Amino acid sequence: MGRPLDVDLRRRVVGAVEDGLSTGHAAERFSVSKAAVGAWVRLKRTTGDVLPKPHGSGFGSVLDPHEAFILGLI
């Protein structure tokens, strides 16, 4: 999975749709997929903004609890 597109681009695309441009025309105008435009519009409706969700679990490695054992093997 790649990096999320720029938040500024997301806001401009959603703004264009809110100003009356169809999702298809907005996708063509900003060179993004129609599915992305629809997802961003839905995200804006539900959360109030188009910020991407954070990536990763943020909990570290599944091997962290076994650090001492692994280092002992080495």
Element layout with pairings:
Layout: H1 7-18, H2 23-30, H3 34-47, H4 67-73
Shape call: elongated
The radius of gyration computed from the alpha-carbon positions, rounded to a whole number of angstroms, is 20 Å
As a percent range, the share of helical residues equals 55-70%
How far apart the termini lie comes to 34 Å
Short descriptors:
55% helix, elongated, mainly alpha, 74 residues, Arc Repressor Mutant, subunit A
Walk me through what this model shows.
- With 74 residues, this protein is mostly helical.
- It has one domain (1-53): Arc Repressor Mutant, subunit A.
- Helix content is 55%, strand content 0%.
- It is built from 4 helices and no strands.
- Helix 1 (7-18) packs across helix 3 and helix 2 (23-30) packs across helix 3.
- The longest helix is centred in the middle third of the chain and has 14 residues, at 34-47.
- The protein is elongated.
- The model has no long low-confidence stretch (mean pLDDT 90).
